[in-house]
Each structure stands twice: as C-alpha cells, then as structure tokens.
Amino acid sequence: MSTTTPVPQLRLPGQAAAPEGPVDMAMMYVAHHAFRRDLRDFARAVPLTPVTDRAAWRALERRWAVFADVLHHHHSGEDAHLWPALLDRAQGEDRATVEAMEDEHAGVDPLLEACRDGLTAMVAAPSADTRSALTVRLVALREALGRHLDHEETETIALVQRLLSAAEYDAIDEHFKKTLTPRRLFRLVPWALVEVPTEVREELLGREGGTAHRVAWVVSRGSFRRLQRAAFAHLPG
C-alpha cells in the first residue's frame, strides 16, 4: 500500500476529480480530456454535416479511427495490466469498484462498434435516416463513456493512489508504452493535446524522456489540424 508524499495532480476541463496520492496521473487525465472532447465534437458535428458532403464524411471516418484506436489502446492496457494489479490488493468494496471498470469497458464496446458502422454507412451510402441513427448512437456513447470516466476519476484512481506506489504504477505504464508504435505515437500526441492549455502542453512535452513526444508534436500537428478542420468543417467556429 502506498504511503509516499502526494504529488500535485493535473485538473483539466470536464474532469470529475483528481484524488491525491503519490502517483502522477497527468497522462491519464489528458487522455480522458481528449476522449470527452472528441465525443462532444462528434456528437455535435454529425447532425450538422450535410448528407451530401462526402468529403466531410470521409474525414469524419478517418478522424473516428484515430479516436477509436487510442481508446482501444487505453482500455486494453487497463484491462490487461492496471485492473489486475489493483485486484491483487483490493478487498470488499474496492474489488467491486475495479470489477465495475471491467464491466463498463465491455458495455462501451458495442456502442463504439455501432458508431463506427454508422460512419462507414454514411461514407458508403449516405442518408438522413442513417445520420439520425448515428447521432443517437453518439449521444449514447458520450453518456456511457462519460459516466465511466467520471467513475474512474472519482473512485478507481483513488484506489490507485491508495494501493500502488509511484514506482509500481510506472512499471504498469511501461506495458502501455511497449505497444506505442511510432505510427501510433505520431497520431496520439497531437490528438491528446488539442484544447490542452499551452502551459500544460509545454510542461508535458518538457518532461524527462519527452523528446519523442515533442518530435511527434512538431512533425505531425499540422497534418492532424488539417484532419480536424476537414472532419469538423460544419461545427460553428
């Protein structure tokens, strides 16, 4: 069980909580911020995108692939490494909290697939009915994933801070990094940093060992911004 001095925790817009403890959860919170931001934008953009704008629908499908890939990487890493580490130590209600995380992941997956299928259909055979159905699915996914992220930030991260040391969490984090290919990194970094305050972005990119992340930011941010503009072309502003 962790007894190390607490470290400052990052707070970003929309974040439900930032439990104190020895583990720096900044990257977790940045990912959660990006998931919330993306589903907000997809849920707003889809009903506003004209059925006939094939270029925008193709861009939305490509942009969805970035979101879905990062979310899958994030959730599969938690399922394979973080939840088992917590279950090794959790008892009673704490175990129930971790088990709920696994169940919530399973509940999100069908909604992700339904949204992906809806976007694929809009590219292949666009129609107003398909767009309306996709809008409903996106709202449902946004609500389900939002509840899950809130639950994780308020209760499960509190368990991380109570049950794991910073070194133990860093060892778990290494498993995430092993599957972070250069291609995925170059998509993940600009994706993660959209709407993150400049001072937070610079602090994250300036961290020890962050050279690869800064290179990814410099090299790929332009192409990512072009994809953003193409996908969300019909959002106001």
UniProtKB/TrEMBL annotation:
<dbReference type="Pfam" id="PF01814">
    <property type="entry name" value="Hemerythrin"/>
</dbReference>
<feature type="domain" description="Hemerythrin-like">
    <location>
        <begin position="27"/>
        <end position="156"/>
    </location>
</feature>
<dbReference type="InterPro" id="IPR012312">
    <property type="entry name" value="Hemerythrin-like"/>
</dbReference>
<protein>
    <recommendedName>
        <fullName>Hemerythrin-like domain-containing protein</fullName>
    </recommendedName>
</protein>
